[in-house]
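Pinned message: reference record for Cell division ATP-binding protein FtsE
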Amino acid sequence: MIEMQDVWKTYPNGTHALRGIDVKVDRNEFVYIVGPSGAGKSTFMKLVYREERPTKGQIFVNGFNIEKVKQRKIPYVRRNIGVIFQDYRLLPKLTVFENIAFAMEVIEAPKKLIKKRTMEVLDLVHLKDKANNLPGQLSGGEQQRIAIARAIVNNPAVIVADEPTGNLDPDTSWGIMKLLEEINFRGTTIMMATHNKEIVNTMRKRVIAIENGLIARDELRGEYGYEE
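Predicted structure (tokens):
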């Protein structure tokens, strides 16, 4: 589902964020990306959803070489990648329904399908009753659930989650993790960067540790391995 071949990322200031990364993530895996701050985790994630581009190497997502894909096909590639951020990134002047529907509108989905699918994902995240609320009227946990609904509304093959529980209290964080686990169980590959030691050590999924731009560990049913 995701493959990196000898991927390097050097920023204009000379910082080598990633250095010769080789990794494969299979369909339907749930993978944690861990490591110290500044290790290269965010760069790793941004390369997967093409917010950043590698200095060298090749990246494949769901069968596409995302470096060689033609410009007109980039929206199609991105449709297959749902992204969840720590700070939610909801549009404050749009309702919950409109925030989720917007992700389908940009790919020009039929209006009837937009309404049907938006209500389906609101039901999945247990927030159907908040459809007409603005994001500012919701708790942090509710906003993150809406961000997850938006990420999955186009049925992506992959979800990339960058610190999705970073701003949430422990109880709310576990609710978000149960939701992500359910989405993974339904067939979506999930890659999640996190500093949450308890979640990683309790859920025991595959762990890829990045240190100084290199993969330091890659373990099935791994542990966090750092003091926070």
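Pinned by admin. Summary line: The radius of gyration is 17 Å.
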